[in-house]
Design goal:
By secondary structure, this protein is α/β, with parallel strands linked by helices. Helix content is 38%, strand content 17%.
Length: 213
Amino acid sequence: MTSARGAAAGRRLAAGVLRGAWRIRSLGDWRVPATGPVILAVNHTHNVDGPVLMALAPRPVHFLVKREAFTGPLGPFLRGIGQLAVDRSSADRAAIASALAVLEAGGVLGIFPEGTRTSGDFAAIRSGLAYFALRSGAPIVPVAMLGSGERRGRVIRALPPARARIDAVFGEPFHPASDGGGRRTRAALEAASGLIQERLTAHLKEARRLTGR
């Protein structure tokens, strides 16, 4: 069973560590509903995006994390702070059940809808986000992570430059079921995915305008 207490501890740990490494900033986090199930849909350009969002989100977040990260001592640690392992090569029923359990318990699920690190422009959205939203009825809050992919000034090649500014910009929550019924047919999933991509892309554009990035 995923631990809500563990996710809360992970949030405190991430905040303590990351604020010393970079200038992380949260914008619009008041838009995240204070209670009830929520899905945070996040663009993804760097491995630090998940930990930064864990630190900045106003509520503890349970992320779907690729199974390959759960190796060695990192596996028990990630599970201990409430993160969920997912096999990206197949329909991972155990991961789906765990993610739905988080939402059914009124928790916050974090998803990178592009499935892996990209240029971070939401150009390719997988259907999993739409499925979780339609199945649970939870609203989606778009989140634009800006600055983590900066390469200029890096001392350690695998990390953003020391003291770089990384912004997490939260958008307005929305429901992707255009008919209001939450059906999970293939047509409904495709329609919801199209709406999600439009909303996430529009939010990213607005976030860049607001931050000048």
